[in-house]
Design a protein that fits this description.
Layout (H helix, E strand, L loop, with lengths): L1 H21 L10 E7 L4 E8 L6 E4 L8 E10 L9 E9 L3 E10 L10 E9 L1
Parallel strand pairs: 1-7
Antiparallel strand pairs: 2-5, 3-6, 4-5, 6-7
Amino acid sequence: MKGTFLKRRRNCFGILLLAFLLTIPVACEKEEQHDRIEVASGDAFSIELGANWSTGYHWDWTNRDQVTIADTTGLEYRPDDPGLGGTGGTEIWSFTALEEGEAYLEFEYLSPGSTGNGGEETREFSLVIH
């Protein structure tokens, strides 16, 4: 009877150990977010990016010079709560699809006074124009 009790106790310990190990958080690398945009030539489209202009943080379209199939037509910022200072919001980049083709639109989230290369976050959009 004593042997059976010890086997059960070891089994319980093993199960508890496994359950504990499964609950330990694992650190993960920050993943870049990729989105696909498909539009017809001549169409307008927009990209929305979370930002906080009240702190000076903003998005920059880093490969603008390499993209020839689309161009920006405007940039707007909408705060999440216009009545409160210091809250985040959304940058809305408006574009026109100029001609058929494929390209990547690359954005970098920059801190105040930053000139690029090493932003806080990056976003990449795959653009397909039919």
